[in-house]
Amino acid sequence: MTEADTLHEECGVFGVWAPGRDVARLTYFGLFALQHRGQESAGIAVGDGATVLVRKDLGLVSQVFSDADLSALPGHVAVGHVRYGTSGAKSWEAAQPHLSTIGEVIVALAHNGTLVNSDDLRRQLIELGIPFRSNTDSEVAAKLIGYFTEKTGHLREGIAAAMRRIEGGYAMALVRENALYAFRDPNGIRPLVLGKLEATEEASEGWVVASETCALDIVGATFVREITPGEIIRLSDDGIVTCRGVPQRMPANCIFEHVYFARPDSVKDGSSFYAMRYAMGRRLAHEAPVDADLVIGVPDSGMPPAEGFAHELGLPFGEGLIKNRYVARTFIQPTQELRSRGVRMKLNALPDNVAGKRIVMVDDSIVRGTTSMQIVRMLRDAGATEVHVRINSPEVTWPCFYGIDTDTQDQLISANMDLEGIREFIGADSLAFLSVEGLLNCVPMNGYCTACFTGEYPVEIPASFSSGKFCEGYTPRNLGLSRADIKMGIGGITAENN
Ligand code: SF4
C-alpha cells in the first residue's frame, strides 16, 4: 500500500546500556533497523554519567545524524526514537526523545503508542501549574512521571505511579544520566523486547531494548525475552533490576504487527513474521482458492503471503509489481501532475510477467481502497486478463486508538461497503479477506488485540477521545477494565499513599 492509504505504526523505540561502547552509534544503527516504523523524525539521547544530551530532527535517521553529530554524543546509556507523525504534530517539539527535567535530573523519554486518556491527564497537570510545549501524549507521560518522581523522591516509583494512571497501548524507554528504564502497557499491546550484548575484551556486557528483534540483530545483541506487560526494567551499574509497575491485564498484543508493521525478519514467540505471513497466505488459499496463471504480492508485506498462497494451490509465484525502494518519505512535494499519478510514484507493473495472464494479487490490508483500485487498474493496463485480489487480514472496519494512525471509521471502506461493493470499487474480478479465525490460527499463542477487525477493544476508549470517530450504527465493545475502575486523580498523591 502507499503512504496515503495505509495504516501507520506511530513509532519505533531503542535503548542501550553499554559502558565502554559507542552507545550513540549503536542507537543510530538500532534506529536504522526500525526505520520502517516511522519516517517523520528521528532522535537520540545519551547519558554520560553527569547529564543527558539529545539530538533530534525531522527526517530519516540517515538525514538527521551526521558522523560528527554521533561523535558529539559520548556516553554509556542511550535511547533513540523514530516517529511517524500525524498531520497535526509534525513539529520539532513533537520529535522524540522528549527531554524534561525532574528537579536537578534530566531525563529523555522515547514512546511508541497512544495514551487514550492523555487529554484528561494534561488538563489535570495544567491545573497543577505544569506547563506544556507540545500537544503530544508523550509529553503528558513525561510530565506525569516527573510529577510523581518529585512526590515520591524515586524515579522508578514515579514511573509506576504514572503507569497506574495512563491508559492505552504504549512501550517506553527513558534515559537519565546513569540508567535506562523500559516499561510496557499492562495489556502488552505495543511490543518491546530485551537483548544482551556479550562482554568483549574492551567492554563489559551490555543490554538493549527495542520495538523489534531486527534492531537487536543489527547491533549484535542476542534476544533474551520480551518486556512483560506492566513490567518496569532498570539497567544501570547495579545490573538489571525488574519490578511490576502495574498488574498484568488480559494480554492484547497488536495482531497488525504480524500482518504488516513488523519487519519480516523480526521474531516473536519463536516464529519470524515472514513465516507467520507465509502461513496466512496458505490459510487464505484454503479459505478463498482461485484458478490463475500467476500469484503476485504487493511489495513488501504482500510478498510472503503471496508465496504461501501460490505454494498451497500449486500456482506459479512471481514478481508483477516493482517497488521504488527509495521513495520513503520525501519533504519535496510532488507536482500536481506527478501526484495525480498516485501509486506509480512507488509501484509500477511489470508487463513482461502479467500481460495475457490471470493474476492473483495478494496484499496485507485494504484501508480506504483507493490504492487497491489503482494497482488493479495498473495491472489491467499492463495486460492482465483477470485480477483476483486476496487480502491476508480480515476487513479493517474499526479505528485503532492504541498507537496506529487510522482514519475515522467513515474513511474505512469496509465500514461503509459490503464485500461486493468493495470488489466493484477496486475493479477486481474477485475479492476475499482472511477470516479472523484464520488469522488467529497463523500466529503463535493467544492473547491478541483484534479491535480494528472486530470492534472489541481491550482498553476502554473515553468518549472524549473517540467522539466523532465511529459511524452511526457501530457500537464498540469494551473488553477491558471500565473507566470507573481506573485510578484517574493526580492531586493529593504522596510517597506514603502512592
Ligand atoms: S486496533 Fe488493530 S492496529 Fe490497533 S492495536 Fe489493535 S490490532 Fe493493532
TrEMBL record:
[4Fe-4S] cluster binds at residues 254, 400, 449, 452. The keyword Transferase applies. It comes from the Bacteria. In the C-terminal section; belongs to the purine/pyrimidine phosphoribosyltransferase family. GO terms for biological process: 'de novo' IMP biosynthetic process; purine nucleobase biosynthetic process. Mg(2+) binds at residues 301, 363-364. Binds 1 Mg(2+) ion per subunit. Its EC number is 2.4.2.14. Catalyzes the formation of phosphoribosylamine from phosphoribosylpyrophosphate (PRPP) and glutamine. Gene3D superfamilies: 3.40.50.2020, Glutamine Phosphoribosylpyrophosphate, subunit 1, domain 1. The active site is at 11 (nucleophile). The gene is purF. This is Amidophosphoribosyltransferase. The lineage of its organism: Bacteria, Bacillati, Actinomycetota, Coriobacteriia, Coriobacteriales. NCBIfam families: purF. GO terms for molecular function: 4 iron, 4 sulfur cluster binding; amidophosphoribosyltransferase activity; magnesium ion binding. Residues 11-238 form the Glutamine amidotransferase type-2 domain. Keywords: 4Fe-4S, Glutamine amidotransferase, Glycosyltransferase, Iron, Iron-sulfur, Magnesium, Metal-binding, Purine biosynthesis, Transferase. Its cofactor is Mg(2+); [4Fe-4S] cluster. It catalyses: 5-phospho-beta-D-ribosylamine + L-glutamate + diphosphate = 5-phospho-alpha-D-ribose 1-diphosphate + L-glutamine + H2O. Pathway: Purine metabolism; IMP biosynthesis via de novo pathway; N(1)-(5-phospho-D-ribosyl)glycinamide from 5-phospho-alpha-D-ribose 1-diphosphate: step 1/2.
